[in-house]
Batch of 2 targets.
Target 1
Amino acid sequence: MKLFIDTASLEDIKTANSFGVLDGVTTNPTLLSREQADPVAQLKNICQIVNGPVSAEVTSLEARGMVAEAKRLVKISPNIVIKIPCTVEGLKATKGLTSLGVRTNLTLCFSSSQALLVAKAGATYVSPFVGRLDDISAEGMALVSDIKLIYDNYGISTQIIVASIRHPIHFLEAARVGADIATVPFYVIEKLMRHPLTEAGIKKFMDDWKKLKKILDK
Ligand code: G3P
């Protein structure tokens, strides 16, 4: 499973990239607004850090506007993937952009029927939001399993990005159901390698090593 970071923070992207396991970045208008910088400049900087797909979201609500925005956004870098909401207008824009060879990430996906239609329109990626479904007592990961089943039934090549990840179990479950990608906020990425037994084990090894050195130095 590929690991994307879900942020527009250059600092967090640089740090996560230094771990050597980052495959891409997803942003959205909320994440970009948190950085209080020019979004185009911010996206350009992100694309210079990460050697992989970087999702940039359109803010138009109708297809014609989405396509026009996408044409401007793809000029930022060859890394740019156009993020489009799962709406009928989004479907039309996806169809048009796919025919132009532009990669798309269909976001705010909350149902399998949306996922099937965006795939038919040629979406490169679909992003089911698991955390937001969990928030309303629906099972986010059940949606991911269902999309995976449907895509496998028909050999659909649209890749599933599990989004709205809130904790390490979301990340693990995404891998268990066979999602292609998980896009993970930095605070969750940091937790993925942490284990108290690893930390306790290192401390014990270091303490014993110091004891041996003391004996040898006598
Ligand atoms: O990838 C989508 C993500 O940015 C939304 O996350 O936590 O706001 O539901 P959240």
Note: The pocket of SN-glycerol-3-phosphate is lined by residues 6, 26, 28, 31, 129, 131-132, 163-164, 166, 183 (CB under 6 Å).
Target 2
Amino acid sequence: MDTKIFQLNEIDAAADAIKRGELVAFPTETVYGLGADATNEDAVKKVYLAKGRPSDNPLIVHVNSVAMVEKYAAEIPENARKLMKAFWPGSLTIILKIKKHALSKTVTGGLKTVAFRFPDCQPTLDLIAKAGVPMVGPSANTSGKPSPTTAQHVYHDLHGKIAGILDNGPTRVGVESTVLDMSTDQPVILRPGAVTKKDIEAVIGSIDINHHKVGKNEIPKAPGMKYKHYAPDAQVYIVDQGTDWGKVIQWIGKQPFDVGIMAEGKILQKSTLPMNAVQFSLGEGIKDASARLFDGLRQFDDQPNVKAIVTEAFPAVGLGGAYMNRLNKSAGGVHFSDDMVK
Ligand code: TXA
Ligand code: MG
């Protein structure tokens, strides 16, 4: 199958493909999603196949109105409505109880809940409006790899497997939406994103955050959390704040392979890097770093000689919470330490 790159003036054609039950990747403000008609079971099945995604991992349903949520949710609690008002369109995904038989088991992974997201990206809101149906949309990467932040990333992973990609250039936020479970009495953040615990608490009061590490045979709250994620083939090392970059660079110089170095421009500029260092600038500050993190990891993943990647940590506050959550997963919790340099 040829994968067509749809330009922004071709949203009609992209919507027709969705209506025919085909897969079209779409932009959002966070990452690109892999779109299919959420009401078409065969189309949704193709999403799992294309991504290589385990079938017990439910999909987010993308909508362009609260009315669309009302069609599929059993009820919208008052606090959920307040959050929709405060943060939609935007990077907050809200899990609600599903109306019986409203969406197929393929969408929900067999759960009695469904996740709704109203992305802050006009071309995709137009796409949903023109298709006239809600769209499922997991991140449009091969399962396990970092999420795509450009149409080229999507093409790299999925060309030949999907009908098209609606190209809106690089995404703005770069890390996936906050996932908030509102299907229980006490709301819980299952995945941190750009909308923070503090932001949410300012609207509805105290909520929880799920720090629980999911065991192998356990049924997790967000099924996606049990799978290896965001991981390039090379080992990623987190370079904690306060680490002497001189030591890091010394270590790089001693490795028999190429090492990717992902740090802010100001760190790269003042360092003299060894021949085997391959640099990727995270820009300046946490906003830039979040927008660029996945691009850097993916670029190094395409360079087989790069067998390790050292990446700058940021304080885990605000957007930094989401950045550090993804970086931790891609590194499997491994940090650079001074002892690595003998
Ligand atoms: O920013 C985003 O959220 C992007 C863009 C494309 O919208 N989408 C995205 O989807 O990241 P995905 O499928 O890669 O991640 C969704 C996460 C998974 O960990 C999944 O298990 C969880 O949300 N999830 C979805 N529905 C759920 C439900 N009903 N209950 C619990 N967790 C759910
Ligand atoms: Mg994903």
Note: The longest helix spans residues 285-301.
